[in-house]
Amino acid sequence: MSHNFQRIALLRAVKLFDLGAVSLTFLTALAISSGSFTWPSFAAVLYMRIKLVNIVVFAGYLAFCSLVFSNCGFYASHRMSRWSRQFRETFFATTLISLAFLVLPLRMQFATTSFYAAFWLLTFIVLFLARLVGQQVLVYLRSRGRNQRNIVIVGEGLDAAQLGDRVEQDPTLGYQLVRIIDAELYTPETSVLGQFKIILSREAIDEVLLALPTNKYSSLTDMLVQLCEEQGIVVRVRTEMFNLRIAKSYVDDLQGIPVMTIQSGPVDGWQLVAKRAIDIISSSVLLLVLMPFFTLIALLIRLDSAGPLFYRQERVGLNKRRFIVLKFRTMVMEADKQQETLENLNEAEGPVFKIKRDPRVTRMGAFLRRFSIDELPQLVNVLKGEMSMVGPRPLPIRDVERIDAQWHKRRFSIKPGITCLWQVNGRSNIGFNEWVRLDLDYIDKWSLGLDFLILLKTIPAVFKGSGAY
Asked: In angstroms, rounded to a whole number, what is the distance separating the alpha carbons of residues 320 and 178?
C-alpha cells in the first residue's frame, strides 16, 4: 500500500469521523434541550417522527460542515503547527456551523437557546479533543519512521546547522533530512544554485527549508524560491513575503521558529480527498467491467506478435518519484533497445520522442494506439495511487532527463493521469511547450469540475484518434 494511498484513506476516515461527531452532538444537544439529559429524553429524540425533508436538509447541512472544515484548515498539514492553531480553526468552524442552524428550514421542537449552547460547546469539545489526539497519534507514528517527508535545508553557517539538528533530533516532525546546503561554503552564489539543482535532479524532494539572511542573499533566495515554484516543491522560509506569481504562502512554526510555507501545486483539502476517492471507485469499477475486453485484447496481441502481453516502463510521477507504468504491448520485443538507432527519425519537438509511422509498432499495436486502448491497464496504477484518472501524462525517464526549461518541471507537482488537457486537444499534434502550458494551466485551475469536463471530452477525443501514434 503506497504512502499516498494511506494518507488519503486516513483523511477520509478523519472526515467521516468529523461528520459523525457533528451528528452525535446534534442529537445529544436536542436531548439536553428537551429538559433533562436522561435516556428517555434521548430515546424520544431518536424515535420522534422523521420527515424526508428534514433528512434531505440535514444531509445538505453535513455537506456544508464538510466544506467549512476543509476551508478552516482541518485537513491541511499541521506538521509544524502549535495546538493554538488547531484551537482557532476548531473555534471558527464550530461557530460557523452553529450559526447555520439559524437559516436551515429544519422543524426541531427542541431547538431552543439551550440547544444552540449545548451544540456549540459539545461540538467544539469533541472536535478539538479529536484533533489533539490525532496530532499525538501522528507524532507517535512519525517518531517510528512513518509519515515521512524528504527535506533540504539551505542556510548559512551555524544557523543552517542548528536547523538541521532540530529536524534530525526531533523525529516527531517526520522529516528525513536529505542535505544541508551551507551558502558560506560556496562562491559565487550560483554555485549554491547549482548544488541545489543537482539535488533536485537526483532525489525525491518534498519540501525545502530556506534560512538565508535576506540582506545578504536576497537574489539567491529569490532564485531558489522561483525554482521550487516552477517545480511545484513546497517551500518553508524564515524571511518576509516574496512577489509570488503562482504560489500561495502561509505561516507555520518549527519548534518556536516562524517559517513561511510557499506552495504552487494544489493545496491539500477535501477536493483532493474526493479526487482520490473517485479514482479508487472508478478504477475498481472499470477494471471489473473491462475484464472481458482485456481478455480479448490479450488474445489478439498474442495472435499478432510474439512477446509479453503488457509493457512495463519506469516513468516519472509526483515530485519526480519513479514508478512502473503498465500498458498493453504495442511494439515488437526489445523495442526500447532500438530507440537509439531511430533518434534521427524523431518528429516531435522538445525532449519527447514520437514517430508517426514507428517501424517498431505491430499491426495490433497501431490499432490500440489509435484509440488509446493500450493505456487502459494504467487503471491499475490509478488504483495503486501512482496515477490519477486525470492529470499530466507521465513521461519516460529519457524525456525527463532532456527537459532543460525549469518551468516545465512544475508539471511534476501533481499526480500524473491517464487523460489530461493535452489528451483532449490533439495529443501528439501539439508541440511540447504547448503541451506543458496545458499541463500547468490544468494545475493552476484544477477542480473536480475541470476533471469531470476533461473526462467527458476524452471520450470523443479517443474515437477521433487525432494525434494518436
From this structure: 15
Identity (one letter) of the amino acid at 444? D
For 155-175, what is the mean pLDDT? 83
In contact, 89 and 269? CB cutoff 8 Å: no
Per-residue pLDDT tens digits for 374-397: 999 999 999 999 999 999 999 999
Q: Which domains does the chain have, with CATH numbers?
A: 3-143 (no CATH), 149-263 (3.40.50.2300), 270-464 (no CATH)
Rg (CA), the chain: 26
Sheet holding 395-396, edge to edge: 322-328, 310-316, 395-396
Distances in Å between the Cα of 248 and the Cα atoms of 212, 219, 251, 463 are 20, 20, 11, 39
Q: How far apart are CA 32 and CA 110, in angstroms?
A: 9
CB neighbours of 335 closer than 8 A, spacing ≥ 6? 360
Write the DSSP string, 90-145.
HHHHHHHHHHGGGTS----TT-SHHHHHHHHHHHHHHHHHHHHHHHHHHHHHHHTT
HSE toward the beta carbon, residue 179, CA cutoff 13 A: 16
Distance from C-alpha of 109 to C-alpha of 107, rounded to nearest angstrom: 6
For residues 114 and 22, what is the distance between their CA atoms, to the nearest angstrom? 17
List all residues 6 or more positions away from 114 whose beta carbon is below 8 Å from its beta carbon: 32, 33
CA separation (Å) from 402 to 230, 323, 354, 409?
A: 17, 19, 14, 11
Q: What is the pLDDT of residues 299-345, one digit of tens each?
A: 999 999 988 999 999 999 998 899 999 999 999 988 888 888 888 88
Dihedral Cα 248, 251, 254, 258, nearest 10 deg? 130
pLDDT at 381: 95
What is the per-residue DSSP string for 179-245? Answer: EEEEGGG-SSHHHHHHHHHHHHHHS---EEEEE--HHHHHHHHHHHHHHHHHHT-EEEESS-----S
**How far is 282 from 389, CA to CA, in rounded Å?**
8
Mean pLDDT of the chain: 82
Which range (25-34, 51-60, 104-113) has the least confidence?
104-113
User: CA 358 to CA 342: how far, in whole Å?
Assistant: 9
Q: Which residues, in sequence order, are CB contacts of 288 under 8 Å at separation 6+?
A: none
Q: Phi and psi at residue 94, in whole multiples of 5°? A: -65, -40
Mean pLDDT calculated for residue range 150-162: 88
Residue-level pLDDT at 314: 94
| pLDDT one-digit tens code per residue, 175-225 | 889 999 988 887 776 688 888 999 988 888 989 999 888 778 888 888 898
Question: Which cell is 20 given?
Answer: 459523525
Record the pTM. 0.60
User: CB neighbours of 386 closer than 8 A, spacing ≥ 6?
Assistant: 2, 317, 323, 325, 415, 416
